[in-house]
Amino acid sequence: MTAKTICVLGGTGFVGHQLISKLTRAGYYVIAPSRNRERHRSLQVLPKVDVIDADIHDEETLNALFVGCHAVINLTAILNENKRGEFKKVHVELVEKIINACQNAGVTRLLHMSAINADAAKGSSQYLRSKGEGEALALTAEGLNVTTFRPSVIFGKDDSFFNKFAELLLNLPVLPLTCPGSRMAPIYVSDVTEVMVKALNDRSTFGHSYDLCGPKSYTLE
Ligand SMILES: NC(=O)c1ccc[n+]([C@@H]2O[C@H](COP(=O)([O-])OP(=O)(O)OC[C@H]3O[C@@H](n4cnc5c(N)ncnc54)[C@H](OP(=O)(O)O)[C@@H]3O)[C@@H](O)[C@H]2O)c1
User: Fold this and answer.
1) How many CA atoms lie within 13 A of 157 on its CB side?
2) C-alpha closest to that of 206 among 113, 137, 117, 111
């Protein structure tokens, strides 16, 4: 039997590394498009993983990538805009293109990564509003079995959030916090990726959205 292929968009990032290695251990073959595959040699050495240079914002490229795939997983996101309009491009327009390409290529299963408190209307930041808009598009896509995930901050060996704060705490005498009372329930990256792999073929998750939180809630302070 040939392995089923999963296309993981944004698979070269922090969550993607973990997810892809779990997918390969579960027997899947993975295609991971990147803007620059050379930066991701640690993924390239994994068996059954194809990291390829591709512009995923190009619709023809997406169509071609998805042909023959069992499922598509979208992890692509940015935390900050370098250029005005980037949140919309990556979190909303790309989701529209992914949905169209799934429909064109005959892919019926999509896992989409959103974020806790993402909400197109009420999100507290542009990041969360654009993530909310993209998630709503995914959940209402026609002909697609979609599951979305809404994690709190994710921690793990290579995370950017806790490692960044640890670096600052080591190097600054005082660390000013803009929102010390912000609440979060950090979740371990391995738990997030395990849930995603389990959901892939679980029909009971079709059309559902899951908040993913760790067992304890903390303030930023
Ligand atoms: N990490 C967290 O604490 C956290 C919490 C809540 C939700 N999430 C969500 O979880 C998902 C994965 O997060 P992560 O921490 O793994 O992110 P990450 O490490 O920043 O990885 C994101 C990936 O997206 C790709 N990407 C970024 N900008 C792009 C662009 N303009 N065009 C095309 N591709 C682009 C990059 O791939 P290339 O550079 O190879 O092209 C990168 O590897 C995201 O949807 C994020 O919103 C994360």
Assistant:
1) 3
2) 111
Mean pLDDT for all residues in the chain = 96
Helix and strand numbers (H, E) in the chain are 8, 11
Q: How far is the CA of 213 from the centre of ligand 1 (A)?
A: 18
Is residue 1's pLDDT more than 60?
A: no
Question: 29 CB contacts (<8 Å, ≥6 apart)?
Answer: 3, 4, 5, 6, 48, 49, 50
What CATH code would you report for 5-155+188-214? 3.40.50.720
Q: Considering only CA atoms, which residue is closest to atom 35 of ligand 1?
A: 76
Q: What is the pLDDT of residues 34-46, one digit of tens each?
A: 999 999 999 999 9
Provide the 3-class DSSP secondary structure of residue 5.
strand
In this structure, which residue's CA is closest to atom 1 in ligand 1?
154
N- to C-terminal Cα separation, the chain: 52
Condensed to tens digits (0 to 9), the pLDDT of residues 22-33 reads 999 999 999 999
Residue 12 is predicted with a pLDDT of 98
